[in-house]
Each structure stands twice: as C-alpha cells, then as structure tokens.
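Problem: given the chain below (117 residues), write out its structure.
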Amino acid sequence: QVQLVESGGGLVEPGGSLTLSCTASGLIGSRVAMGWHRQVPGEERELVASVSSGGSTFYVDRVKGRFTISRNNAKNTVYLQMNGLKSEGAAVYYCRATDLDVRADYWGQGTQVTVSS
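Solution.
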C-alpha cells in the first residue's frame, strides 16, 4: 500500500518561509515523479512544482524564483522550500507521486499553509 505523508505546513507571515516535506512508502516503481499541488476552497487543485525521477524540475510561473522543489531518493522524500510567501499562497498543499512504471497516481492527505500577519 502506497502512503504519502506530508508535514511542514503552518502559519507564516507574508514574506516568510516554510518548507514542506512528503515521505513516500510502498512505491514499487523506479521511475517516480513527485510534485506539489495546492487547492483553495471552491477552486480546483493545481500544480505548483514537480520533479522527475531524474531530477528535472518544473515550476508554475507565479512561484519561480521563490519556491524550490527537491527530492532525496534515499529517503523517498520530496521537499518544497517556499520563500517570500504571499497571502495568495495560502492553501492546502498536496504531495503527489506518479509511478510511471505502474501508471498510477498517489496523493497525500494535504497540509495547510496559512499566510497571515
């Protein structure tokens, strides 16, 4: 059974930083892309950043230069370092693992990020 466990969310002031972590267990493929998505009430879940099994990264335009996604394959963990958080960055952040070998997507339970002074 695949499990993704996120941590690191919380309350931060505008301009502040947070680092999210997501540790995966039970994945069997050797080609697993990882990503972070966000969702606010009433809106669809949307991609924030992703990292391929080979380490290639992608960021949506609004977070480029402020967010950094990275992964530690030995620990089966993906991170999202978020700097310069803005109020519109408040959302529930979800970790996603795409196992390309078995063609399956897995999601974490989400972690709340609140940006407020």
